[in-house]
Amino acid sequence: MRKQLANALLFQLGWFTCVLGGDSPWLLLGAMILVAHFKWIGSWADEGRMIVGITLIGITLDSFLHWLGVFQFKQVSLLIPLWLMLLWPLLGTTLRHCLAWTAHPWWVAAALGALFGPLSYYAGAQLAGVTFGYGQWPTLIGMGVLWGMLLPLLHVVARQAAEEPKPAAQD
User: Which of 100, 115, 118, 98 is nearest to 154 (CA)?
Assistant: First the structure.
């Protein structure tokens, strides 16, 4: 229980650090939060592959949404800002810890993703000065649909990454 609480608190600290710090040296604190997670809560050996996978999925998804004009950032770039990239491994640290209870049944993850995914993007946009290219409500509704599917998918990725690869059968 203590590790789950610590995981939730570290994630929230990381979230605020990334969103409020932007692409500044404050992002080093976000990176240190990842290191703290691997030192005291999880381990790179157990979770590294999963967190890399979650990060790649998230950066690809948010970059695609950015390219579509859903998110508009202050700086012009093909990629999403570094602070938004760093949020994805931070989220990855929660899937086997403080958010593990949302994995089963799958509809819990779907419902919570549909509600809290858009709320997180809304809060982040307000604090970081991000605008929604298609307007607030259409974007939030679309993000709700997306996150209603995405959070259960992220749990599948977390579960599959936890399974040890089986060696090929020897003849």
Answer: 100
Q: What is the CA radius of gyration of the chain?
A: 16
**DSSP letters of 39-50?**
III--HHHHHHH
Over residues 63-121, the pLDDT tens digits come to 999 999 999 998 888 899 999 999 999 999 999 999 999 999 999 999 999 999 999 99
Query: Dmax over Cα atoms in the chain, in whole Å?
Result: 60
Q: Is the pTM of this model over 0.90?
A: yes
- CA–CA dist 76, 19 (Å, integer): 18
What are the residues whose beta carbons fall under 8 Å from the beta carbon of 48, sequence distance 6 or more? none
Report whether 85 contacts 55 (CB < 8 A): yes
Q: How many CB atoms lie within 10 A of CB 71?
A: 22
Return the C-alpha torsion angle 7, 11, 13, 17, nearest 10.
150
- Residue 70 is classified by DSSP as S
CA distance 93 to 32: 13
Residues 13-58 have pLDDT tens digits of: 999 999 999 999 999 999 999 999 999 999 999 999 999 999 999 9
